Amino acid sequence: MAQATTHLTQLNEWQALLAHQGDMANVHMRELFNEDPQRFQRFFAEAAGLSLDYSKNLITAETLKRLMALARRCQLPERIEAMFRGDTINVTEQRPALHVALRNLSDDAIEVDGQDIMPEVRATLTRMEEFVWRIRSTQWRGFSNKPFTDVVSIGIGGSFLGPKLVSASLKPYWHGQLNCHYVANIDGSHITEVLRHINPETTLFLIQSKSFRTQETLENTKVAREWFLQNGGSFEQISKHFVAVTAKPEAAIEFGIAEENIFPMWDWVGGRYSLWSAIGLPTALTIGMDNFRSLLSGAHAMDQHFRQAPLEKNLPVILALLGVWYGNFWGADAHAILPYDHYLRGLPAHIQQLDMESNGKCVTQQGDPVDYQTGPIIWGGAGANGQHAYHQLLHQGTCLSPADFIIPLQTHNPVANHHAILFANCLSQTQALMQGRTEAEARTELEAQGLSPDEVNRLARHKVIPGNKPSNTLLFERATPRTVGALIALYEHKTYAQGVIWDVDSFDQWGVELGKQLGEGILQRLQSTTAPSGSSDSSTDGLIALFRNRHHNGY
Ligand SMILES: O=P(O)(O)OC[C@H]1O[C@H](O)[C@H](O)[C@@H](O)[C@@H]1O
């Protein structure tokens, strides 16, 4: 879909932001807070059980006005509607991106090619419900008639990170009898370590692959099947233990999965947006279908907010525009996701795929090279751990990485005074990033410690913290299925809104394909038992030779 921003950087709204950044360049956030006692209330928004304090940003009301003007000029409201309507917003693959349909709990129809897709979505949820019930109630058992104790999900990328994040986030809701494991990597150690601890009689394998042709997933599935057959299982019993989720059922059947054990996926769901589909089965098995539906309802609440709230109060839009502000006007090329919640520690990895695979693009939807920065490097980890490691760079380093601090008001595990201490750590970080410490303050502190004037002179400048580093604080009551659903959907929509501003296709991932294509040729050269034919660059050839010397003496 063409939009009005082919020359984004030439737009008046873009130029106005450039000029405004010049005005803001020497303003310190300390001053902004001093000048306006209402700053917290002014830059605070809520939706779907999430609260966003975005007052600790390098912004004024004027900044927001100009960012909103850019969003309107880029037709963001129309593009949001286009996504919900099922328009072909994935232009290179010529299809809609309808993850919102998977959590559409309203009665509204959503059409793809004139066909309402909601009946199929609802029917799949009902099938999942029945399946989850049969496993959890022990109606469906393993080959020796024992109930299942372990679920192993085999999948990678979007068929791994999302469900793994949700499973870990909702550990307090796990069914006591079922353990959940994930195998993704084509590194024998991953599957070996999982198989080492489970029993084939009581293990259910879920093969998760939209395309059903992902090398890592298929190779790991072969290993799992072989292990099953060598440890008491038979060919006839495979259907009791192997279930697949895929948009290519014929490939799964050919691979040996029983037709009745295949759950559908659809072309109109991107892998990194698929945890809401049957790809969420490992999660649904462990937390139960009621909780899985709550997860969907949280995401649905965020969907409605994204679709209906004015841009000025719209959480995903605010986060998206702040990202544009820093990436395109302040030179930031990274963004940190810092969950202060043990259960949410997988969030950075999921958002990393979601955001970087969606907006790591260098041409517009029309294929023209962009002359501005698109998606940032997403990184992060759990707080407070990071404070004792990489936060140093946030405080005193030379690169700018705005950060989202994410923390619940209440913990699932009230141990001693831990949660208050955790909360205090989180707030002290955002405060330190914002206000920093001046040289005068550093000197006063050193003098108060009784240091000599020489020592004060020697140390003061090292103790200066520039501050003025932007952060958002995202709060919610507790990590429940509903809030986790809303939180993930928030980042999905932020990603889409940024893709709209940058005019990129947020739903394809052609860059990933090149490595896969080259990998096939290299594998052949590594494994051929005769002298390998073909050559490429000297580095790759040299590394291939090292591997071959180790594995095929003589060649
Ligand atoms: O679900 P699959 O078809 O196996 O794909 C798994 C993953 O692999 C690909 O390489 C893509 O980069 C991901 O977006 C995708 O989620």
TrEMBL record:
InterPro entries: G6P_Isomerase (IPR001672), G6P_Isomerase_C (IPR023096), Phosphoglucose_isomerase_CS (IPR018189), SIS_dom_sf (IPR046348), SIS_PGI_1 (IPR035476), SIS_PGI_2 (IPR035482). This is Glucose-6-phosphate isomerase. NCBIfam families: PRK00179.1. It is found in: Cytoplasm. CDD domains: SIS_PGI_1 (cd05015), SIS_PGI_2 (cd05016). Keywords: Cytoplasm, Gluconeogenesis, Glycolysis, Isomerase. Belongs to the GPI family. It comes from the Bacteria. GO terms for biological process: gluconeogenesis; glucose 6-phosphate metabolic process; glycolytic process. One of its GO terms (molecular function) is glucose-6-phosphate isomerase activity. Pfam families: PGI. Catalyzes the reversible isomerization of glucose-6-phosphate to fructose-6-phosphate. The active site is at 357 (proton donor), 388, 516. Coiled coil: none annotated. Its main location: cytoplasm. It is an enzyme of class 5 (isomerase). It comes from Marinobacter zhejiangensis. Pathway: Carbohydrate biosynthesis; gluconeogenesis; Carbohydrate degradation; glycolysis; D-glyceraldehyde 3-phosphate and glycerone phosphate from D-glucose: step 2/4. Its EC number is 5.3.1.9. It catalyses: alpha-D-glucose 6-phosphate = beta-D-fructose 6-phosphate.
